[in-house]
Amino acid sequence: MSENISFETTIRVRYCEVDKMGVLHHSRYLAYFEIGRTEFLRTSGFSYREFEDARLYLVIVKVSCNYKYPIRYDDVVRVITTLKRMTPAKIEHTYEIWNEDKSILHAAGESTLACVDDTGTLQRIPDFLLNLSYPSPPKSGGD
Amino acid sequence: MSENISFETTIRVRYCEVDKMGVLHHSRYLAYFEIGRTEFLRTSGFSYREFEDARLYLVIVKVSCNYKYPIRYDDVVRVITTLKRMTPAKIEHTYEIWNEDKSILHAAGESTLACVDDTGTLQRIPDFLLNLSYPSPPKSGGD
Amino acid sequence: MSENISFETTIRVRYCEVDKMGVLHHSRYLAYFEIGRTEFLRTSGFSYREFEDARLYLVIVKVSCNYKYPIRYDDVVRVITTLKRMTPAKIEHTYEIWNEDKSILHAAGESTLACVDDTGTLQRIPDFLLNLSYPSPPKSGGD
Amino acid sequence: MSENISFETTIRVRYCEVDKMGVLHHSRYLAYFEIGRTEFLRTSGFSYREFEDARLYLVIVKVSCNYKYPIRYDDVVRVITTLKRMTPAKIEHTYEIWNEDKSILHAAGESTLACVDDTGTLQRIPDFLLNLSYPSPPKSGGD
Fold first, then answer.
1. Residues of A acting as catalytic residues
2. Model confidence pLDDT, tens digit, residues C25-69
3. Cα(D123)–Cα(A141) distance, rounded to whole angstroms?
4. Considering only alpha carbons, which residue of chain D is nearest residue C17?
5. Can you tell me the ipTM of this complex?
6. Strand locations in chain D, DSSP E?
7. Which of B27, B97, C70, D27 could make an S-S bridge to C23, C-beta 3.0–4.6 Å?
8. In this structure, what DSSP letter does residue D15 have?
9. Which chain A residue's Cα is nearest to D72?
10. Does D18 touch chain C (CB under 8 A)?
11. Which segments of the protein form a coiled coil according to its record (chains A, B, C, D) (predicted)?
12. Fold for the domain defined by B5-130
């Protein structure tokens, strides 16, 4: 099991993502977290699309976010996703969103995922997912 | 076949739908058109959800929109959906979005739909859909 | 100050809001919470649009959500927003999302808001907002 | 004036952008077009954010899209934006969305933009925008 390792992905804020105040709408942060953990998984050779093709789904059970400093249109942000804990029942991630030069922490959050089949019934998280190994040094990837 | 009949639905603009200029983002108009034609279909007793449960899908083949006057956050707008033409190959709608008292035309658009199965293969539009009858006087419904 | 009073608003899930699993995307719950508290405020005669016109903004400082049971396309859900606590520094709400007949609790969440001006500087929450009075029995409103 | 030159930008489809059919929601294509033309402008040294800081805005007057082949979650697509015509009154772009190896044309569209000030009044498109020069060979850029 690979825990407490992190992955960084870079996202440029789109015009259609900002609200009337010119800042990233607070609900969008959750989509950025999702991009972070999806790209993270990809580094281990895992593709979420294939996972779904096998009719298994990772669903969000719980999420939280603290908003510290607004993110503006056209900003480039760095989403740092950390795998905190993975058991047969759940996967816990934490997230930080930093500005491009990492001088400002925009937000911090966490999520808990569980695995279900296509009837929505809770499933044990498959071994191949529990046993994935990630490249050990944090790696960067573009969106 | 019921053509050139119209249906009106009312939508209040949500905060998360407006952009930095405080107006409904232009891509959202297409979602409003979609709400319009879905609510329209519902008046005939047709539920798009049941249609999909039968593994048939109406897909957009073509869409266009003319933007005339911006729509602001919290505005209440009236989407008027008109069924222009329905053949076994396609369904054509036109749309108008008006302000609440119908003194300002915000936008006008049109769309063409086709029917596919879950492999994406084009299908004849089912007879029950071609033969739907809609309440004859234009009816209103909330979102 | 009016605390621990609740407001219920009804929302029908739009096609463009569901994801590949046919369920409301988890980030959209936060937009539903936002609709809940906006409609709630409206019952007290307060319009968030006017508030923004005065160049004051309520910003999200913290949000969390527990997802209990998926919400499908075309479902009608009831968002119950409760004002838990309001001080000159912050406003706390809790939320529950129930199915139409209130037999299933889909999700529960909470949020903390603060007030800023248009430079993003933290402001005391204005007295008129602290002193708003809401209709005492929970009231319902459509989206 | 630089017309009929093209720019290509690459986008990976996000989970939160696909609908129940597992494909990019038709309204999202318009957001992809927007990313295409924004990135295109950026190659000329123009930043839309600075433009807005000067209280000028490019608004969509008209848009259309033909959908030819669905785009799935996690697909990487290439958006090719072409500047067709630019006059003091309007800017016309065309768009094509191709799959990664450019063997499948997913969609083709066009848009017309006009320039307004922050009261929404139509403005002449500023000379500096009319006179922008773009790198002559089509260039690629990531999202």
1. 19
2. 999 999 999 999 988 988 877 777 777 777 888 999 999 999 999
3. 41
4. D19
5. 0.88
6. 5-12, 56-67, 76-86, 91-99, 105-117, 122-123, 139-142
7. C70
8. G
9. A49
10. yes
11. none
12. Thiol Ester Dehydrase; Chain A (3.10.129)
